[in-house]
Amino acid sequence: DASGATVRTRRTVRELHRTPTGWRLVVGSTRDPEVVDADAVVLGCPAAATRRLLGDVAPGAAAALAGLEAASVAVVTMIFDDNDCTLRERLSGSGFLVPAVEGRLVKATTYLTAKWSWLGSVADGRVVVRASVGRHRESAAIQRDPEQLALAVAADVAAIAGTPERPRSWHVRKWGGALPQYTVGHLQRVADVRGAVAAAPGLAVCGATYDGVGVAACIASARAAADQVARHLTALTTMGR
Asked: Which of 26, 221, 235, 240 fits 206 for a cystine, CB–CB 3.0-4.6 Å?
């Protein structure tokens, strides 16, 4: 409230155009589009979406983004009954990773009630386990029906860790093309993207696509982008815009 900012969510940005005074975004549904004019724009979306938006305004950046691949992922959170605490005692550590050579559906699992003490203290006779699915260029696995996917994941975790094959309840969340793949030449591609974007004043990019998927890396990337557009806006103010 103090900043006077307006936060708008669940509004798809469909187009990005340069104007004589800044930028114009076309947002919302195709049936009821809305035009939003802005002095500056920061794109923090995945590479594929960013590439589409930059096609006309920064074609060099769009071309470089075409070389940045991503994997689709799903996270399955499962709750198991454990009234006598035997399951909690059996699950040592905080989870496990599964290399691709194992041929498993699951690629990583976290024992949430073990990793986060606050959750373990309120779990009330239950164990919460989170598993991730989806490897690079293997999207078919997560296209299953959510229940089928959850039960397949539960079976995988049961075979590895000894949990029950059917959890008490589960939740499945899917993200298409959300996990960047940092292949050979990634740093140069990122430099090419940012170099092309820098040629368009008031435009910046940030996010896991460029500098790392960790929270700290994403925050640092966002701050750098914010600083970039802030300098541009300060320059506009100095010029009396």
From this structure: 221
**What amino acid occupies position 29?**
S
**CATH code: domain of residue 27:** 3.50.50.60
The C-alpha atoms of residue 210 and residue 191 are separated, in whole angstroms, by: 9
Closest C-alpha to 117, from 137, 138, 94: 94
Task: Answer yes or no: are the C-beta atoms of 220 and 226 closer than 8 Å.
Answer: no
Would you state the structure tokens that stand for residue 215, as one six-digit string? 């929270």
Residues 217 and 170 reside in one and the same domain:
no
pLDDT tens digits, 87-100: 988 888 999 999 99
Q: Are residues 89 and 120 in the same domain?
A: yes
Dihedral sign computed on CA atoms, order 212, 213, 215, 219: positive
DSSP β-bridge partners for residue 16: 25
Owner of token pair 């298409």: 176
pLDDT at 144: 92
- pLDDT at site 106: 96
What is the rounded CA–CA span in Å between residue 99 and residue 182? 17
Does the pTM surpass 0.85? The reply is no
Model pLDDT for residues 98-114, shown as the tens digit of each residue = 999 999 999 999 999 99
Within 112-215, strands assigned E span: 126-133, 169-180, 203-205
Q: Which residues of 41-73 are buried (b: 16+ CB within 10 A; e: fewer)?
A: bbbbebbebbbbbbeebbeebbbbbeebbbbbb
What's the rounded Cα separation, in Å, for the pair 41 and 55?
A: 15
- The residue segments making up the domain with residue 190 are 13-68+181-238
**Does one domain contain both 163 and 208?**
no
